[in-house]
Design a protein that fits this description.
Layout (H helix, E strand, L loop, with lengths): L4 H4 L4 H15 L5 E2 L11 H11 L13 H15 L8 E4 L2 H12 L5 E6 L4 H8 L3 E6 L15 H5 L1 E6 L12 H14 L2 E5 L21 H4 E6 L12 E5 L1 H14 L5 H12 L3 H23 L12 E5 L7 H12 L1 E2 L1 E2 L10 E5 L4 H14 L4
Parallel strand pairs: 1-10, 3-4, 3-5, 5-6, 6-7
Antiparallel strand pairs: 2-8, 7-8, 9-12, 11-12
Bound molecules: pyridoxal-5'-phosphate (PLP).
The site of pyridoxal-5'-phosphate (PLP) has 13 residues, from helix 5.
Length: 387
C-alpha cells in the first residue's frame, strides 16, 4: 500500500528506539523511573470528577454537541476576566478537544502550501507537525540560553517575515521551561503588526509558574487581539488531560475561521466534558494551588538532590518539566538518554527530539512523587555517570 509523503514527516525514529529500550529494561526486571511523559500523575479535584460522572450518566448528553453550551462560554469569559484581567466577547471563544487539536488545524486556516510558519526550536512537536501537515514551510526560530530562551525578533530577516503567515509562540515553554516578560509580548505584537503575521500563543502551562510568580495571558497585551489568539488548556491546570478540552481565545476572525474548519472535522466537545470544564472553571481553585505547590516541591527536591550528585540543573521557572544540560563527555542527548536508561532505569527525553537546538539537553517531567525522584538521584549517583 502506498502512503502519503506527509506521513514520512511523522516518523519518530527516536521514540521507537526509546520504547524498545524501555521494553528491554522491563524484560530484564529492572525498576524503571519514568520521567519522560508529560502526563500529570495527580488526580482531578473531586468536584470535577463528580460532575463528569453525573453528566456521563445522562442519556441526553450523548447527542452531537456541535458547539459550546452558553454556560461554558460564560464560565470562560468570567475566568479570563478574573484570572488574567482580559475581557472577551462571546465570539472570541471557541472550545476544542484539547489544544493539540487546535495546533494541528490552525495552519490550515492561515497558510497555503509554501507559505512560511514560524515555530520555536526547540519546540513542542505539534507546533511543527501541524503546519507541516498543511504543507506550510517551517521557519525555525532558535530559543537560545544566552537570550533567556526567548525568540529574538531582531534576528529575523524582513524578507522572511514578509513571507510568514503565522507564528506559534509558547511561554511558559515546553521543553525549555522559560517564561516570558510583558516586554517580550509587546515586541511580538509589534512584530506581528509590522509584517501582518497571525499569532498563536499556546498558554498550556499558564498556571504552572513557581516561586510566587503568576502566569499571565498574551491577550492582556495591548493590540494582542488584533493579531492573534491564545490557546489555553485545562489539561495541566486541572489534571484532566484525558478529558479533552481547551479553548481558542481572542481575535474573532481567526476564531471564526477555526470554528468553520472544525465544524467540518468534529461535532464539538462531548457535553459531559463541557460540564466538567464549567465545574473546573467556576468551582474552588485550591486544586490548582495544590498542583502548583506539588510541582514546585518536586522541582526543588530534584534540583537539590541532583545537584548533590554532580548534575547541576537550572531551576525551571514554569511548566512541569526541567531542562537539564547533559554532561560534557556525551556526544549527543540520545547517547546520554540511552546510557542513563541502561545504567539507572531512569527515562528522560533527549532534547534533540524537540529540534536541532534542543541538542545538549534532556527534558525531565516532574510526574513522579518526591521519594521516586530521590531514588532516581541515588541510582544516577550509583551509576557513576556524573563522577
Ligand atoms: C506546549 C503544549 N501545548 C499543548 C499541549 C497539549 O494540550 P492539550 O491536552 O490541551 O491538547 C501540551 C501537552 O503536553 C503541551 O506541552
Amino acid at each position: 500500500m502506498k502512503f502519503s509523503k506527509r506521513m514520512d514527516g511523522l516518523d519518530s525514529a527516536i521514540f521507537s528506539v526509546l520504547d524498545d529500550k524501555k521494553r528491554e529494561l522491563y524484560d530484564k526486571g529492572m525498576e524503571v523511573i519514568n520521567l519522560s511523559v508529560g502526563t500529570p500523575d495527580m488526580p482531578p479535584a473531586s468536584h470535577i470528577l463528580k460532575t463528569l460522572s453525573q453528566e456521563a450518566g445522562k442519556a441526553a448528553n450523548y447527542i452531537y454537541a456541535l458547539s459550546e453550551l452558553p454556560e461554558l462560554i460564560d464560565a470562560v469569559i468570567a475566568w479570563y476576566s478574573r484570572r488574567y484581567g482580559v475581557e472577551l466577547l462571546k465570539d472570541e471563544v471557541l472550545s476544542m478537544s484539547g489544544s493539540q487539536d487546535g495546533l494541528t488545524h490552525i495552519a490550515l486556516t492561515l497558510a497555503d502550501p509554501g507559505d512560511l510558519v514560524m515555530v520555536p526550536d526547540p519546540g513542542y512537536p505539534i507546533f511543527s507537525v501541524g503546519p507541516s501537515l498543511s504543507c506550510a514551510i517551517l521557519y525555525k526560530i532558535p530559543l537560545l540560553k544566552e537570550n533567556s530562551f526567548l525568540m529574538d525578533f531582531d534576528k529575523i530577516a524582513p524578507d522572511i517575515a514578509h513571507q510568514t503567515r503565522l507564528i506559534i509562540v509558547s511561554y511558559p515553554n515546553n521543553p525549555v521551561t522559560a517564561i516570558a516578560p510583558p516586554e517580550f509580548y509587546e515586541k511580538l505584537v509589534w512584530f506581528a503588526k509590522k509584517y501582518d503575521i497571525a499569532v498563536v500563543h499556546d498558554n498550556a502551562y499558564s498556571e504552572l509558574v513557581y516561586d510566587g510568580n503568576r502566569g499571565g495571558s498574551f491577550l492582556s497585551i495591548p493590540g494582542a487581539k488584533e493579531v492573534g489568539i491564545e490557546f489555553n488548556s485545562l489539561s495541566k491546570s486541572y489534571n484532566i488531560p484525558g478529558c479533552r478540552i481547551s479553548f481558542a481565545l481572542g481575535n474573532k476572525d481567526m476564531i471564526k475561521q477555526l470554528k468553520t474548519l472544525k465544524s467540518h472535522i468534529d461535532y464539538g466537545v462531548f457535553l459531559p466534558v463541557q460540564k466538567a470544564a464549567i465545574a473546573a472553571l467556576t468551582g474552588p481553585q485550591d486544586c490548582v494551588v495544590e498542583t502548583v505547590a506539588t510541582y514546585q516541591r518536586r522541582r526543588d527536591v530534584l534540583i537539590d538532590s541532583f545537584q548533590k550528585i554532580g548534575w547541576s540543573i537550572p531551576k525551571n521557572p514554569g511548566t512541569m518539566f526541567v531542562w537539564a544540560p547533559i554532561p560534557d563527555n556525551y556526544s549527543s542527548s540520545v547517547e546520554f538518554t540511552l546510557d542513563l536508561m541502561e545504567k539507572t532505569g531512569v527515562i528522560v527525553v533527549p532534547g534533540s527530539s524537540f529540534g536541532e537546538r534542543g541538542e545538549g539537553y534532556v527534558r525531565l517531567a516532574l510526574v513522579q512523587p518526591e521519594d521516586k525522584i530521590i531514588k532516581a538521584s541515588r541510582l544516577i549517583n550509583q551509576s557513576g555517570i556524573f563522577k
